[in-house]
């Protein structure tokens, strides 16, 4: 039986139960009305200016968009973790050539398996996998904090260029507050722990954490984010679930920020400590979003919080309380629209009582009041056997069914995808058998490129197509649409630099000829031009 059709009965029932959930379809814009007022008339006998009565208000309707035959939007991303050398590089101290070859292998895999984005960790412990004047080179690159790659290169710049060559968005993933990881080697004089010891505290498991409530912590983390946004051609900025640390990192003891809170209280602060901590994180999240948009509005900001907001939301959910333990009010960030995409870490299975994947996804969607992208994170590290392959594919299919207007999934992580060949094969032969576009973000920009001008001709039994765009610099990709006689519409996604293509004019034993073709242009934010089909029988 085909893996896609092995949709468990339980999963199907759960999916049906959520069909009533709202989708992330953007709100329909109200046509703007324009008032036409004639010139005023001045009487020569009476100098009083008498305005004419305005003409009837004439509504100016927005041009109706002509959509292409299929919705091919779906965010397909994988995390690439550098902390502890989880995914890349495989170990510290590799040569530049070895690091680059490993990176290309990962990116080639994502391209060949029809992913369209990579979430690359560039700041695992207040350090940098890129050239920075604010923080030291990462230990996970060279094996020595502060030591640059040899021969020199900028890993982030390399990853961006190679990802874009392969049609992949690159989102930089940063940990805003972690100052040192237990696997992070010796703390050198280049570390923020040595440079600004007043900001960092040591936890009992050996990690160091910057105090999130200190203004200098927030300012420093903000400066790091904006340095990357300004200098690199990234597509997104991404934070995960590490705000205040998990209490297990400190053997269950409270985070040691007594002095910071005492200073707040001495300044006539009224909030209880837990509310004060959450307020500090909330302010930081909103600040980052606003600063990114002020600099480069097209750069998306994504957050990947722990998958449960609070036990009891929804009612049957049990588990860790991020609101109370991590001081992360993730529901607020989603409600307020302080993000462009939201990726709760839903690492549980479909039929897991207390943490059911579709039940949690449905609850988060009910909180998506600003219609942002909701692209859940799923765990592909359960193994490559048939049961776990079915689980992964079923979760993708449930996500598609529940969020049809803005589909998407983020996979934790790229390592298991490459390790388990049967899983990778099932994806590319199943739900990922065709490439997809990253869904548009209309709240950032909804102006689509103009329709390309295309000419066609038949040469050597192939349909030759050439096209031009009025503003080629605005085009990131083209989608070539085509349909054979008695067939359905199909498509190919092409790079924005491509200006011609050819298709076999006659296919199959029945000698079916190409019936119709069309071309749409897509900009960097996923806005797709109007669709205009060419009926080949009439040309």
Automatic annotation (TrEMBL):
Entry-linked InterPro entries: Divisome_Glycosyl_Hydrolase (IPR052177), GH (IPR017853), GHL10 (IPR003790)
Signal peptide start and end residues: 1-22
Keywords assigned by UniProt, alphabetized: Hydrolase, Signal
Top-level taxon of origin: Bacteria
Domain Glycosyl hydrolase-like: 74-372
Keyword Hydrolase among record annotations: yes
Pfam families: GHL10 (PF02638)
Designated name of the protein: Family 10 glycosylhydrolase
Protein source organism: Christiangramia aestuarii
Source species taxonomy: Bacteria, Pseudomonadati, Bacteroidota, Flavobacteriia, Flavobacteriales
